[in-house]
Fold:
Amino acid sequence: MTSQVSSPAEQADGTVVGEQRKPGGAKDVRRLDRVIIRFAGDSGDGMQLTGDRFTSETASFGNDLSTLPNFPAEIRAPAGTLPGVSSFQLHFADHDILTPGDAPNVLVAMNPAALKANIGDLPRGAEIIVNTDEFTKRALQKVGYASDPLGDGSLDGYSLHPVPLTTLTVEALKEFDLSRKEAERSKNMFALGLLSWMYHRPTEGTEKFLQSKFAKKPDIAAANIAAFRAGWNFGETTEDFAVSYEVAPAAKAFPVGTYRNISGNLALAYGLITASQQADLPLFLGSYPITPASDILHELSKHKNFGVRTFQAEDEIAGIGAALGAAFGGSLAVTTTSGPGIALKSETIGLAVSLELPLLVVDIQRGGPSTGLPTKTEQADLLQAMFGRNGEAPVPVVAPRTPADCFDAALEGARIALAYRTPVVLLSDGYLANGSEPWRIPDLDELPDLRVQFAAGPNHTLADGTEVFWPYKRDPKTLARPWAVPGTPGLEHRIGGIEKQDGTGNISYDPANHDFMVRTRQAKIDGIEVPDIEVDDPHGAKTLVLGWGSTYGPITAAVRRLRAAGESIAQAHLRHINPFPRNLGKVLGQYDKVVVPEMNLGQLATLIRAKYLVDAHSYNQVNGMPFKAEQLAAALKEAIDD
Structure:
């Protein structure tokens, strides 16, 4: 028997593309091209796990996706309060998408605090699923509700689904030998089952995940699986959910290949391992745990089989000190941190500049200053990466643009560090680190050859014919000095932070030599070969929007909106910030107006103005959240019309 397709009823965001009406009284299935879902609850309600599992099943189904986890900095914020709300937003579609979405189509609110903290982001007509068991008088008063929003008419503009999630979960688990409190912990799995039914998500992966996660506690695993299945069955049988939704796989959005869902930090960790393999060098990570960079340490510690050695140091300074020592010893050396850690590591980064040794310094930026907003995102470490050291200590800066791009950025950072014998700062941020998207696993023949040659013997002949090793005799093309592994006979040389004589490496206080060495180190960075910046300008626009790092997704989404509305605008995005691409000045000079959106107060714009004398217009946001596409589109439209 075939289904009939009727004319769709347009949803609030205009994503409905069709509706199938099943015969025999079965529920309708509505086809959508994209959906934005936000799970929200207490930081102890398992919202990040729920969102992660829904994301994993969505990725396995073949949709394009983008996620935005958002959680408090406290380990366990006060239950039922607004500061304690944790959320996970997922945007998935049957086509290419770039952001986690501006406004959720569906909000799952586990308590009044979650509803109040997120209701302002919802468009009228959005669906709200609430756990009515938590809407007690005390819970409502705790977040400032004078009356129950589920019954006072304030939610009349939305499609409200009151569901006693806690009660239904406890009822579903009554056959298990669990206390009520233990049973209640599975309500997030009940909610996940319900949403999985609503959007036709696969279930096998989640059940296997739960069996693996609780392998040592089979009763807990069985209870969570039972709650998950109960949520699915509730959606199938209840009268409150008359429609389920289908979002087809994004078959045309991706090149042919093998894909997996990946977060920015995981992609970066895999990129570092791959770089070490391509360089045929052991990987050493010297690190101190700090949000949001700690996941890289956690992940790399699992891969000793690839020659990875991780060292969790007692502090930030010890972490980078050990990494620099490993670089001196011939390893691909890495240290990971966030903004406060970069401040502590600055002296050793300067030492690495003086020693001219390869070192990757990974900065997962977060809101500052000082401790600031540890779990929120920001791009405010750019000038610190560029200039945050004493003396003239230039360092290359590379910035990934998406979670998956963190893999390629790690390889690029390693290429520069190894080829030019320099520390390199890799500037990711919390949005990229915790967000995820599909990633095509590259073929081996696509990966760069990063192998280097260590110094093996004398490289200089003195006037009397004696052959000696000069540690600062440079490659004429890259200006890199030799990399001499300690213990190699005849290659003994001085190290340390005191200025060295050109060539010999002897300690030197000679003014002319210092001037020469400072200028040479700068020339080495200026001479790094980086690709030209590419400009997307199909219509010969007069306005260029220039971005860097994680603003790529929101900027590109905004540009698409403007072009769809008939506007003409050009777009370019920087990966290399030091040195800039050689054609950047020429590109900037071709446009009447350059707009630079940043999650800071205008740091890239400051660099652009200073170097190219271009009157770059800043558009800035520092609220700990990524830009919204609609917000950027409005700002760029204003710039075009101005």
Confidence is low (pLDDT under 50) at residues 1-14. The radius of gyration is 27 Å. The longest strand covers residues 34-42.
